[in-house]
Amino acid sequence: MDSGGKPVEFSILTSSSNADRAKMAALLQDDLKQLGMRVQVVPLEFRSLLDRVTQTKEYDACVMGMASFDADPNSDINVWLSSGGMHWWNPRKRPPPLPGKRKSIV
Fold this sequence. Notes:
The chain is an alpha/beta fold. Helix content is 29%, strand content 16%.
């Protein structure tokens, strides 16, 4: 139950063409069921999955992979920064103020 006393229910999207990720989503579903949560695994064709995650943002959770073969984390800065174009959780987040650049309240 959530803080309002309602059952916790949500869906996890995953690619229908990736058996390993579908298994991961099923494992999550089973683990969360033990905590009393109802989770529906939704396998989608990869292009549909990408559209939901990157365009419509109509999803609760998603199991997918992002591969980078560069040891330098700076090459993936667009993933890690909340304002980055590939930052898929909490999208379109405004960057935090820089130190020393805070607005004063008068």
